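Ticket #4471: structure export looks truncated?
Reporter: QA, pipeline team
Priority: medium

Steps to reproduce: submit the single chain below to the structure queue and open the exported record.
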Amino acid sequence: MAKKKKVILPPDLPPEIADNEIEVSDEDLDFVRNNLKYAGFLTKLDKKSIDRHVTRVADYEDDGLEALYEKRNRKAALLKAQEEELQVDPADALPIKTLDGKLQYRIAKKRRSEEKNDDIECASGDKDDDIVRLTKAERREKLKKSKKEAKKLAKQENELDIHAGKLHAEVLEKVQEELSAEEIFAGKKMKLAEIGMALLEDPESNIRSLKELLNICNDKDRNIVKLALMSLLAVFKDIIPGYRIRSPTEKELAMTVSKQVKKMRFYEYTLLSSYKAYLLKLLKLEKQSFFHQVAVRCMCTLLDAVPHFNFRESLLASIVKNISSSDDVIRKLCCDTIKSLFTNEGKHGGQATLEAVRLIADHVKLNDCQLHPDSINVFLSLKFDEDLGKSKRMEDDDKVKKKKRWQNQEGSKQLKGNDKKKSRQELMAKTREEVDADFKAVSFSLDAVEQRRMQPKINAASLAGGVGPHPLLASCLDGLGKFSHLIDLDFMGDLMGCLKKLAGFSEQHQDSGASDQSSLSVTERLQCCIVAFRVMRSNLDALNVDLQDYFVQLYNLILEYRPDRDQGQVLAEALKTMLWEGRQHNMHRAAAFIKRLASFSLSFGSAEAMAALVTLKHLLQKNSKCRNLLENDAGGGSLSGLVVKYQPEATDPNLSGALASVLWELSLLMNHYNPSISSMAVSISSMANLNPDQNPVSLYAASPLQAFVDFSIERELLKPVGKPLSLNRKRKRENREGFSAFSPDQIQLVGSFINEDRVKKKLEDHFKLLRDIRENERFRSDLNCTKWSIDLYEEYERQRKQIDKSKTHRKKKGGKVL
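Actual output as written to the record:
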């Protein structure tokens, strides 16, 4: 018998000790700390699963915990059986009814290897009588069907993979293009900066780089083209010389020159050709809407910076073409450039000014004066030296005197010719001419002879545009008023006749007593009157023109003025130019204007009223006899004139009979809502108690134009900001206005329902308020009189102190003499 093998038993487990009784000593802790590498598995434990397991069984006791484990095992087995079993179709097998009354169908185990062929499936199926068997034809058809479905699925998967690959490739390509575009843009910007810096540092050595910048202007990226244009602009502004480059002739090219001259010729030739190509590029890009503003800005900057350089005519022609552009930015750029050209004539010697004026005049004629007013307003920046004629006459007189003196010296002394002395004088004269020429080339001051030659041409060219239709009329009238003293006296008569015709005056005025209905607006006719007065005052010694017709026009245009249609500032300027300034007026005409201005001030706002009252007060101060209009006689003042009765409808101020009227409008103006207007009315009314030679202290010493501007600003500041009327409020107002269309019977019916006591109470309150207003007006007039007395007293004290001071100064001076 074989020997029995010795069984080795496992070691006994340590005794079970409760968790509360376990004590960890310091030695154990030191051992764990020293041997951490052996405790590494503890870090890999799944703490979440352990915690979940502990928390799930923590509240159960021994019996409950054992039941929980059994229930969990049964559940796992049931799930496993459901996975391995296959329920048979109820049509293939009969069910079994359990004792509970539920129907239970027969089931069969699921085959684990579905990828085996049909024979293996049949062999395995023979072992189990419960599986349904298929015929051979059915098995073949099922196999074909599964193969087709497999091919179809494989094809769809391939298509999806191909499509996803294409999308991925397209997205990747787009991202790469965007990244590459940004890198390319940044690289081109860096290249532009490098080339520009190199040209600015040493233009002579790097002049060939201009062609590279010009090539970048042909780039497909529009933003790069803009940057290239601006870079070239900055480079040309810096490197263009202060003289005009002249191309060498064939004879000069055939001559042998030094290397320095060859280098300079090459530099100038390259610069000029590149500048020409740049201008051609700008003119080409100007026609494109995307580059239009950039191209115009570049041309305006070049003309403003280097107006003396070559191809100035092309720049001027393009800028003048855009001077009346519909784009406000481009029009302002061109107008500012032309104005700068006119004011800085030292840069170009005045020749560019003459060219610009001629081009603008031709442009106005070509467009039949249908342009923006800014295209003509640039002429107001022209400068004409009025002392050129005087200096020329003085030079001629000096030449005549020197010639006479030299002839006298020649007659008295006969000096022998000295060749050496003559050659020395010629050399000095030649040197002086060279120095003068260099100084003239460097300085920005104009030569007097050249300026005298250019100025008449500029003046004639600027007037060649003529006074066209309405768009340019106001600008032309402003220019005539400013430069009227430079126009030849031979044209003054025709000019005054044209202005009279434009103002609307007819030759039949003396017969019919009315003026023609002009096609011009009230503002334009007032401007014609203003220009006529300025022309007359600037040529007062040479002209003998009767301005009565213009006074008649102003007298009638005051009534035609409408604040929402016409310009109040032009009316205030007309009052200032024709009535406030100048000599003393005829008494009848002054009285007519005083009466009309008083009526005018009642009908319009504070600005118009203050301008009219300032003019009215000035006329009363200059024409002391017209102060009779302030009297309260029933038939007017003591001077009634030739016309006994006042005729407000008269068109001629001399025939209106205004001296027979009274300024009753002032009593209403004293109650004006604006305290400045009421104070001015009180001040004018107080002039009735003064002597003819005495004038009151002026409360407002500004001109009518300044008064209108000041009160226009005040009106804008005090204008309430309210919401627009809603539709319901508009309907209510329309219904309220429609009340006047009631019939008399309806009005009588409504009147029968009126409460008389209520109406009586409202009337009493109203008249009580009026009495309070009158009381306040009386207090206000007393306050104004007190202020006026205080002003007079302060003026008296100031004059008395000045007199005392002068007396003491005289006494001290007399004591020193003694």
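Status: closed, not a bug. The export was complete when the record was re-opened. Leaving a note from the reviewer for reference: DSSP finds 31 helices and four strands in the chain.
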